[in-house]
Hints:
Elements: H1 6-34, H2 39-69
Helix pairs in contact: 1-2
Amino acid sequence: MESKEQHPVRLLSLTTRSLTHLTAAMSEMSFEMMRSEDPAVKSAGRRMIDHLAAIGAGLDQHWETLATYSDVPILHESTEALVELELTEIPQEP
């Protein structure tokens, strides 16, 4: 059972994990934007990737700080495998 002092660390860990997932999803969408033929969309995708890189660096600091306050290791997103799939065709129902 978690002690009362561990609850804020757990909450911050869950929040940081959610922000990490959100950043990954936004990065994926930004790369999709960069594949566009429209120069404005492509440029917006590049700018978003730059912004997300800065946000990711801040989240890395969150993970490091959380690890110092936790008695147990906090799993960081980089330890989990991220797999990108490309759907080439929408499956038809039988």
